[in-house]
Amino acid sequence: MSEALVEIRSLTKHYTRGKQTVEVLHGIDLDIPRGDFVALMGPSGSGKTTLLNLIGGLDTPTSGSVSVEGRRIDEFSTGELARWRAEHIGFVFQFYNLLPVLSAQKNVELPLLLAKMGSAERAKRAKVALTLVGLADRGGHKPNELSGGQEQRVAIARALVTDPTLLVCDEPTGDLDRKTADEVLTLLQTLNREHGKTIIMVTHDPKAAEFANRTVHLDKGLLADEATAH
Ligand SMILES: Nc1ncnc2c1ncn2[C@@H]1O[C@H](COP(=O)(O)OP(=O)(O)OP(=O)(O)O)[C@@H](O)[C@H]1O
Question: Which residues are in the ABC transporter domain (predicted)?
Answer without folding.
Answer: 6-230
